[in-house]
Amino acid sequence: MTKTSGSDNVLCGRLLLIDHDAACARQTSAELTEALLVAPQITHAGTGREAADHLRKLRYDVIICELASLGDLAANVEDAMSRLVRLANGALILAVADSGSVSAALGAMRAGAHDYLAKPAGGSTLAGRLAELAQRHGRPRSLGVEVTPEPEISDYAGFVGASSAMQFLYEQIGRVAASAAPVFITGESGTGKDVCAEALHSRGPRAGNRFVAINCAAIPRDLMESELFGVVRGAFTGAHEDRKGAAELADGGTLFLDEVGELDLSLQSKLLRFLQSGCLSRVGETAARKVDVRVICATNRNPMQMIADRQFREDLFYRLHVLPIHLPPLRQRPSDIMLLTRHFLARYAQEEHKSFSDVTPDAAQRLTAADWPGNVRQLQNLVRRLVVMFDGGQITTDMIEAADIESRVSTPAPVEAPRCEKRTVLPMWQQEQRIIEEAIATFGGNISMAAAALEISPSTIYRKRQSWSELAAAG
């Protein structure tokens, strides 16, 4: 391996390498030293407790953590990583685990790890990922690297994106697709949950059989059971013939339940029985039919909050939540926005028989800086509208302004504030404290579940509690 020339971005400072395998740690240290222009001061810790001791004595810029080495810190990976994050004092944390440890990787990310890599990961791969993390999290140049990066996937099974968040997603899909276990996909509207479900099917052993999707939010509740499990002739008015449901149609293949949280509670109970037994009964019959399907479900809502609100059965959630996949919102991967824009621009220009050359720098900056509450779907709609409304050439900010209907609709006209009695407004940190403490109380003191409901990491709650204690002591 040859070091890359250049002096703009180098890695220096302190790096803590946590790995119970001393030989593997020595190899990783040597490869990192070889890959980086300026080698960091690398400290090796063989256990989680040893790492904690190092973190109490010194401040580190980067932590590379082999997850199996944290077993002495806590009973599970998520709690161990939470403890590590509290001691890390803002260091970048890159988790490393066996390629099959999907749940461990997700637990580490939920607890505050900045990114995850599957083993084995060479020095150039580690250095490249650290460079991207440093750039993404706004760290100074001394935390960057300049190496020859590993080839990145920019187009995968219907997804478009080359950011580290998408690379991690592609790795997950590749690993999870081969399994027969249920998959639970979460993500905001427009992030591509249906694309993810189809990718899991097409890359798995059931690809030759049917993929049947059913949107649980789009079908009236009184028809949902027959749509899902089928109906026999005469079961109710309008049932003129026997008809298979989605679960039976997917026999041998994949059943995708989109917006599964919208199912009626009584139907959730029947779905749970189906998952447990693999048998179903059509509406109006007593005989059970055995089917073999892989179930993938998705929701854009917070499942923990639905459970707390008694809108979703907890036992059904844990039956479905075997292999979780979370799709990142577009605002968390801004480096993919122009890649997606050019992809959609080329597609729709070809469909409309028009010629668009590119996007002006000002327009690109505007697109990249947008929040995109509708995520990829909103961007896709905007680009299609641009292609239809204009004849060609470069996309400009004026063109975007004319076509960006959603932003204008979502920005309400200013109205005069109603006059009301003067009230005391609490400081932001006190309001935030009240919200977080109420969430913790709702889940009986379980910080991990409260964090999931608030869509923040447990490490954030621990850090905020510590800062509140300091504020209270200072006051």
Automatic annotation (TrEMBL):
Any one GO molecular-function label of the UniProt entry: sequence-specific DNA binding
Family matches, as SUPFAM superfamilies: CheY-like (SSF52172), Homeodomain-like (SSF46689), P-loop containing nucleoside triphosphate hydrolases (SSF52540)
Residue ranges of every copy of the Response regulatory domain listed in the record: 14-134
GO BP, one annotated term: regulation of DNA-templated transcription
One Pfam entry name: HTH_8
Domain Sigma-54 factor interaction span(s) in chain numbering: 159-388
Sorted UniProt keywords: Activator, ATP-binding, DNA-binding, Nucleotide-binding, Transcription, Transcription regulation, Two-component regulatory system
Protein known as: AAA domain-containing protein
Organism: Devosia marina
